[in-house]
């Protein structure tokens, strides 16, 4: 929503109004336009064109009484122009033009507020629209990085600049991913509709995976100078809340929301005044967000109440709940954490799960027991190139008094770590060993 333009200067109130409406209502706007036009890529494009026009018009005339109705009417007009360019005789253009004419004044001006036939969206279809938008943006025909970018753009309402900043990649890279994603969806003829019931469980897993990736990057950045990217994490939480509202009977959606809320509850205590990381055992638990903990536990209760057993996100949420409800690290129920990681390893096996289980085993049964699991991972080369494995191994060797080996492992972890804040912690631990 920037760039050169003709006409009156853009005002800050207009910019704030446009950004606020878009951030809150983008999913409903794009969803309604996609159903209206039957063309996902066109819907996103005309929505962006409407935003650009709003910046100019609202700077001159002020925000309209119904900002969403204004944006939708403008976007629909742009869509009709696009259909007209494609074919003057296109049957769909004739239908859309007739519908638009019913809700507009005879002068052709964009209405300040929608009339009875020009609602911003069909109230009976709003949930389906937003849910369909999520499923389309996370369609398996797209590579994972494109799903993340498209979800943040179309469902989350973030700009390309915000997405690029969050993932520390150039803006043109994000723009290219989004453009390719829309072209891929069009080429694959992905319909803008909810997938049939038999496909939803698998497709829902893709949606949850995208939200999980977004939150994880926000809660511990893989690279850069900041440990946390709260804006990204909170955007994932907002989208997860939307998903649970749309699919209240899906326990894993509640499990993911619970995991995000319980993890984010610790954000206020995870960094010091200068942004330096604060380890779990050193955190002031009085600074944890108790409201987020309550929300997370309530979401976990809803996931459990479904009676279908906890899935991968629900189990991770249950582990997070053990930490969130403990008075200190030593008072954490580490035996339960070990059992939960064992269950997680059976239904969603991964070397990271095994590494986390090793940490829990070390806390419950001593560092030697945890080191045995870590050494098995090293022998199998399960996490090549990751700083996590030597970081944990260095910690356990330190606790066992094997300081020379521990220092070497911590220094290796620091060399492999791409996040400056985490790297400084690892180097500090290595230096402390003399």
UniProtKB/TrEMBL annotation:
One MF term in the entry's GO annotations: DNA binding
Residue intervals of the RNA polymerase sigma-70 region domain: 28-87
Gene Ontology process terms (BP): DNA-templated transcription initiation
SUPFAM superfamilies associated with the record: Sigma2 domain of RNA polymerase sigma factors, Sigma3 and sigma4 domains of RNA polymerase sigma factors
This protein's UniProt keywords: Sigma factor, Transcription, Transcription regulation
Family from the record: Belongs to the sigma-70 factor family. ECF subfamily.
Protein's recorded name: RNA polymerase sigma factor
